[in-house]
Amino acid sequence: MRQGDTIKINKGPGPVRKSRTSEGRPPRRRRGRNEYPFVIGFLAAPVLLYAVFVIGPYLQAFQIALTDWRGLKAPNYIGLENFTELFEDDAFKSALWHHLWILIALPLATVAIALFFAFLLNVGGKAKSGGPGGVRGSSFYKVVFFLPQVLAVAIVGVLFQSIYRPTSSGMINGLLDRVGIAPVQWLNDPDIALWSIIAVVVWQSVGFYVVLFSAGMASIPKELFEAAALDGASRFTVFFRVTLPLLWDTLQVGWVYLGIIAFDMFAIVQVLSVDRGGPDNSTTVVALEIYRNAFTYSEYGYASAMGVVLFFMTITFAALTLRVTRRERIEF
Amino acid sequence: MAQQDPRETAGVDRRDVLKRLGLTAAAVPGLSLLSACATGGGEGETKENDVSGEDAKNPFGVDGSKPLSVVIFKGGLGDDYATQVHEPMYAKAFTGVKINHEGIVEINKTLQPRFSSGSNIPDVVANAGSDLMDTGALAEAGHLQDLTALWDAPSLDDPKKKVREVVLASAPSTGEVLGKPLLLPYVSSTYGLWYDSELFAANGWTAPKTFEEFKTLAEQIKAKGITPFAYAGKNASYYAYWMILISAAKVGGNEVLVNIDNLEDGAWQHDAVKQAAAAWAEINTKYSDKSFEGLIHTEVQTEQNKGKIAFYPSGSWLENEQAKSTPASFKYAIAPTPSVTAADKMPYEALRVAAGEYYFVSAKGTNPQGGLEYFRIMLSKEGAKGFTEKSGSLTIVKDATDGLSMSPGLTSVAAAQKAAGDNVVTNSLFENWYKELETELRRQTNNLMFGRIDAQKFCDEMQKAADKAKKDAGDDIQKRTV
C-alpha cells in the first residue's frame, strides 16, 4: 500500500471500504493525484481524436456557414445571409417538408410492423410448457427479417430499381400487368415517389427492430405472460397491457434511431430517385441538398449553413423524443 | 451508384471526359491556389520561345536535330494514332529526328512532378482521362504554349489556307484558357437524333425535316408498336435539353444560345426558346412514354438497340458506347433536329458540333516549335484521317474522311457535317459555367417533357434560375462573344 492511501484511510474514508476489506477484496483505491497522469494518458488520445475530427469540423462548419466560401478564393464573412437565403430556396424548403413526412411515416410504419413481427416470433404462438413461444419456424424468420439490414444501400438501390421499374419488366409492375393494371410510375410520379422510397427504408429497417424488440420481449419474465394467460387475457390484451408497457424503453430507443435515419436518407434517395431528388424535387432531402451545393455547385458556405440547420434539427428531435417519451422505468 | 449519372462515371465513356475537359478549359478564374502545385520548380526565368517564321514548309522554324517528346493518354482512343500515324509523319518531315513516345494513363500523377521540377518536360501532351492536369493552373504558371501561331500558320495540305480555316470554326476559341488559345481540342462530337437506318429503310421511313413531318412519321411508327422518341429522364435529361437548345438556335440563330451563356436578361424568354420547348414537349408527351423518366441512359439506349425506340437524342459517342449491345442488323445513323418553323434562321441541316479532347504544347519544354509542328501534322488531312482510322473518332479537321471506311454511324456523321457546312450550332458553355443553373435546367426539362409544365412556365422558371445565377456570379460572370 502506498503512502497516499494510508494517509486517506487515516482520514476516515467510511465504513463501506472497511467492510469490503473484511470480505477479502482489495480496498478500492481512491484516485491519488499521481494516478491522474495515467488516466489522462488513456483519455487524452480519444478526446484529442474526437476534438480534432468531430468537434473541430463542427465548429468549422459553423464558421464556414457564415461565409461565401467556394473552395478556391479566401472566404468573405457575410453574416447570416446564407441562412436567410435558405428560406427562399425551394429545394431546401421541400426537403424540410419531406423530412417531416418521413419523420412521421418511417418510425410509425417500421415500429408497428417490427412490433407485430416480434410479438409473433416471441409470444404470439401456442403456449408451450416453458410459457408462451413464437410461431412455428420463428428462428428462421428472424434471420429472414434481418437480412435486408445487412445489405448495403447501393445493393438495396439496385434491387429496388428492378422492383420499381416503371415498365412491365419491373417486378411489381410485371405482376400488375398480369392482372391488367397499367404500370404504376413508382419513382416517376411526384405524388408517390417519396412514399415509394420511404417504403424501401421501412423494408430495410424492420429486421433490425424485430431483433431489437425480440431481445426486449425475451427479457420480460415469463411469469407475467403466464399470469395474464391464467387470468384469461387474450393475445391482444397481453400485447397492449403486458408487452408494450414493458418494452417502452426499447421502443423509445428505436424511435430515436429511426428519427435520425429520417434526417439522413441521403444514400437511398441518391441511388433510387429520378434526377437525384426528383422528379421536380419531390424526393429531395437536406443531406442531398448539402451534397449538391457543396460538391456540384462548390457553394461550401451555403452548404455548411444547411448542415448547421440539419444539426439543430437532429439535436432538437433527439432531445424532444427523449423528453416526451420519458416514463418511469418498471423494475422486474 | 456508378451508373447514376453518365457524366460522373470515372473514365467510362468518352463524352464524360470531353465534358470534364470542357470544364477545366472553361472554369479558369480563381485557380490561383492550385497553381502552386504546378509551379514550384527551380527553373527560374524561362527563355522566351520565338516561334515565328515565314517559311510555309517550316513555319515555326523547327530544329530537326532536337528530339521531340510526346505523351499520349492511353485510354479509350488508344495511342496507336500517335505511334503509327502522327509520329511517323513528324519523323518523315525531319529525317533522323528522335521522338520519345510515352503512352500513359495517369497523366497528372506522371507529369505534375516533371512540370513542377522543370526537368524532362514533354513537348506534346494529350491531357485526358480521369487523372488529367489542371490546365487553368498550368496556364497561370506559363506552361502552355500560345497556339495563335499554329492557327495562323499555313495548313499542311494547302499552304494558301491557314490552319484555322481547315478546322471547325469554333475550335480555336474552345481551346482558350484565360482568354488565350492555349489548348488544341482535337476530337469533334456531333449531336442529333439517332436512329437505326436499317429499320427505317425496311419500313420506308425517312428522318423528318420539320416537326410537322416528325409528328406524321411518329404516328406511323407508333402504329408499328414502336416508341417514336425517348430519352432517359433518370440521369440524362440533358440529352433532351440539348435538343431544345439546338432547336432554339435553329429558330433564332446562335445568338440565342450566346445570350443564354452570357446570362442576358430575358434570354430564356426569347420566343425561339419557347417555340423549341413547346415543339419538343409535344413530341415527348404524345409520342413517348412516361416510364422513360425512370430509366437511365444505357437502359434506353439498349431498348433502342432492341428496335423498340425509333429516335434517341445523343452525340456521336453513342455508337461506340453501345457497341457491345448493338445487334449486327442495327446501323446507327444521325439526323439533324427538325425545323421548328418555316422561318427558322438556320436550315434543317444545321448541326451542333463541339470540339473536345484537349492537347497542349509545353512552353517551357525543350522543343515547343516541334510541338507546334506536331500539331500542324495532326491537323493535316492525312493526320486526321489516320486518327479517325485508329481511334474511331472524328476530328475537328474538315473533310478529312474521304475514302475512309468508317462505321455506319461515323459515315452518317461525316455526311451530316458536310451537309451542314458552316451552319454549326454553337456549344452551350453555361452547362459547365453555372452548375446550379444546369441542375435546374435538368429538373425543368423533365417537368416540361413529361407534361408537368408548359413551355411558357419552362421559360419563366429558367429565366428565374438564370437571374439567380447572374446575381450569384456577381463579378465572376463569364462572357463569350461568339
Provide the residue-averaged pLDDT of chain B: 86
Tally of strands of chain B:
11
Count of individual helical segments of chain B: 20
Overall helicity of chain B? 40-55%
- What's the total count of β strands of chain A? 2
What is the level-2 CATH architecture name of the domain at 14-189 and 354-410 in chain B? 3-Layer(aba) Sandwich
Instruction: Characterize the main sheet of chain B.
Output: 9 strands, mixed
Write down the CATH class of the largest domain in chain A: Mainly Alpha
Per CATH, the architecture of the largest domain in chain A is: Orthogonal Bundle
> How many domain regions of chain A?
2
CA-atom Rg of chain B in angstroms: 23 Å
Morphology call of chain A: globular
Structural class of chain A: mainly alpha
What summary fits the major beta sheet of chain A?
Answer: 2 strands, antiparallel
From the N-terminal CA to the C-terminal CA of chain A, the straight-line distance is 41 Å
Beta-strand proportion of chain A: under 5%
Radius of gyration of chain A: 27 Å
Describe this structure in words.
The complex is a heterodimer of chains A (about 325) and B (about 475). Chain A is mostly helical and about 325 residues long. Chain A folds into two domains: about 5-85, no CATH class; about 85-325, Orthogonal Bundle (MetI-like fold), CATH 1.10.3720. Helices cover about 65% and strands about 0% of the residues of chain A. Chain A is built from 15 helices and two strands. Chain A has helices at about 5-10, 15-20, 35-65, 80-85, 90-120, 140-150, 155-165, 170-180, 195-220, 220-230, 235-245, 250-260, 265-270, 285-295, 300-325, and strands spanning about 125-130, 130. Chain A has a two-stranded antiparallel ribbon. In chain A, helix 9 runs antiparallel to helix 12. Chain A is globular and about 75 Å long. Chain A starts with a helix and ends in an 8-residue tail after the last helix. With about 475 residues, chain B is an alpha/beta fold. Chain B has a domain at about 15-190 and about 355-410: 3-Layer(aba) Sandwich (D-Maltodextrin-Binding Protein, domain 2), CATH 3.40.190. Chain B is about 45% helix and about 10% strand. Chain B is built from 20 helices and eleven strands. In chain B, the strands form two sheets. In chain B, strands 1, 2, 3, 6, 7, 8, 9, 10 and 11 form a nine-stranded mixed sheet that branches. In chain B, strand 4 and strand 5 form a beta hairpin. In chain B, helix 3 (about 80-95) crosses helix 15 and helix 10 (about 235-250) packs across helix 12. The radius of gyration of chain B is 23 Å and the shape is globular. The two termini of chain B are about 40 Å apart. Mean pLDDT of chain B is about 85; it is low at about 1-55. Classes of the chains: A mainly alpha (about 325), B alpha/beta (about 475).
